[in-house]
Each structure stands twice: as C-alpha cells, then as structure tokens.
Amino acid sequence: MRASPLLLLPLLLSCTSPGTDSVAGELPAGQPLVAEADVPAPLAPPAPGVYAWLPAGRYRAGQTVAARFAPPAGYKRVAVTAGSFGEWLRYLPLLPAGTPVKLYNGQPKDRQDVHAAVLDIDVGQRDLQQCADAVIRLRAEYLFSQNPDQVHFHLTSGDDIGFRDWYSGRGFKVKGDAVLPATRPAEAPSHANFRRYLDQIFTYAGTLSLSKELQPTPLAQVQAGDVLIRGGSPGHAVLVLDVATQPGTGRRVVLLAQSYMPAQQMHVLTNLYDDTGLGAWFYLDPAQARVGTPEWTFRSTELGRFE
Q1: What span, in angstroms and rounded, lies between the C-alpha atoms of 114 and 135?
Q2: Is the peptide bond before 234 cis (omega within 30 degrees of 0)?
Q3: Using omega within 30 degrees of 0 as the cis cutoff, is the peptide bond preceding 148 cis?
Q4: What contacts 6, CB < 8 A, 6 or more positions away?
Q5: 111 in a domain, yes or no?
Q6: Strands 282-283 and 267-269: what pairing?
Q7: What range does the domain containing 280 cover?
Q8: 206 domain residue, yes or no
Q9: How far is the C-alpha of 7 from the C-alpha of 160, rounded, in Å?
Q10: CA 44, CA 22: separation in Å to the nearest integer?
Q11: Domains identified in the chain, total number
C-alpha cells in the first residue's frame, strides 16, 4: 500500500486559511446579524439513543435543528425517509441559544459572528476534528447508530480503514510513505472505542480524501447530508444539515454546519449576507458560479454526496 510521503503526513491542516479565491468577506459594516426563524417546527425525532455520544437523559426534543430553525416564510421542509441520514441530521441536538463556539482547548473561537447555533457534540481534546473531520464524524456517528460495521473511511493515501477491522484487532500504522497492517488488541465495538478509531481517521484523512468519497451533485438537487467541499490544501468542507423548498418555484434553501481550524465545536452557520428573511438558511443558486458561506466561498461545482 504505497502513497506519496506528503499524503501520509498527519493532516492537521486540511482546513487551512483560504486564499483570495475562497474567502468570503467580513460582515458589512452596520449590518445586523440575521435572526433565526421563529416558527415552530413539528417534532418527530428519532430515539435519543441514536445520538450515542450524549449522556443518558441529555437529549431534548426542543433543542434540535428542527425545533430551533423553522423554514423561512413560504418554504416547507423537504420530506426525509425515516431512519435516513437526512432525518438523523434534522434532529441533531443543539446547545442552548447564545452558546459561543469554543476551540478544542476550551478557548473561544475568534469569530463569534458566523454561527447561529452550536451542535451538542464533543470536539475532542486534540486539534483533530477540523472541517472534513467534522463531516466524517457526523456521517460516522449516523452509520454507527445504524450498524457499526458499516463505518469505513479512506485515508489520503487511498487506504480504506473500516471500524470492524479496527475493533477486531486489524489496525494500521504509517511508516515513511506506506500504510502497513498492524495488530492491535481486539475490543468491543463500543462508542468509546469508536471515538479512538475516529481520531486515527482524522489524523490521516482530510478534505482531499473525503472529496474522493463523494459523488458530484448539481446544486439544484441538493439534499440533507450533501457536502460543499474543496479538496486539498487549502481546503474546506461544509455539511448540508437540512433542506426546504418554496412550493411553486422549487427554489431550495439549506442549513449548513461546519467545524474549522483550529478544531472547534461544530456549529450551524448564519447567513450574514442575506437581507430577504432567510435567517440561517442559504439559497444555493444554481445559476451562480460561487456559493458563499461566512468563512469560505465554494465553486458551484463543489457539491458532493455520500453513496
């Protein structure tokens, strides 16, 4: 299993600072932050146990993406299949309104104007769970809730590392420019062991490897679970949490979530540049060449979907 030595370096800089082609501007002077929609959303969340990182009794149906972010006036949420990734994302737990975003070391993120809410999920104690890692984390947690043996991700070297192999005692080690098989103690597929597996994935995967796992998808067909992603360095990834449509026009708006660099709490992005009442929702205009988010601007061709 061979790869370039550069590809096997721990990918702690996958969300590097964007260049002139990728940065979105600061909030225009005098423009207020956009408020969240205040229309209550119907609640039918999955069983709290599917969010396995939460302590027992912590899940609150009133503190979820669906509960806090009603669609803009004139829009309706897209129907999602029970048990799907889209449904799972729609009912992700949130921390209380007004919670600041913190880095992995407990310090506040410099910019506190880009988020509308903070997800109630740990960031870890190391600078690992950055942008692509946050997308991997949420996708992995969903798969873990369905069947832990389904969880697998590619390293930037191209090697496919499955959780089943890892907890069964078939790990890996990086030596020079090679990813080599390595024996490790067999363990139960517990969530604690799953988190240790993910930390290894975060170390050797990034936007480049994740972009290769996704199928290109037109903006007009965006659905929950899709990813806006620029693979490479610099690179970034933002996850589509939810989608709503405008009956009659078919126009689609989305909720977006990200982590960034350094590793930080995942957060729902706020739409700093809209003055039409979208709140935290973003219109992904298929006719435009760019998709702007508070800390990154993507090309319209950079939407991908998990198979």
Answers
A1: 18
A2: yes
A3: no
A4: none
A5: yes
A6: unpaired
A7: 10-148+200-306
A8: yes
A9: 14
A10: 38
A11: 1
Assigned domain for 300 exists: yes
CB–CB of 269/236 below 8 Å? no
- The token duo for 43 is 């609640």
Quick check: is 190 in a domain? no
Q: Which residues contact 124 (CB under 8 A, 6 or more apart)?
A: 104, 195, 199, 263
The whole-angstrom separation of Cα 159 and Cα 264 is 27
**Contact between residue 132 and residue 260 where contact means Cβ atoms under 8 Å apart:** no
pLDDT tens digits, residue range 118-171?
999 999 999 999 999 999 999 999 999 999 999 999 999 999 999 999 999 999
Non-local (6+) Cβ contacts of 95 within 8 A are 63, 117, 118, 119, 120
Residues 8 and 155: their CA atoms lie apart, in Å, by 8
Question: How do residues 5-53 score in pLDDT, each as one tens digit?
Answer: 435 555 544 576 554 455 444 333 333 333 333 333 444 568 778 999 9
Reported as a pLDDT band with limits 50, 70 and 90, residue 277 is confident
Q: Which DSSP category does 80 fall into?
A: -
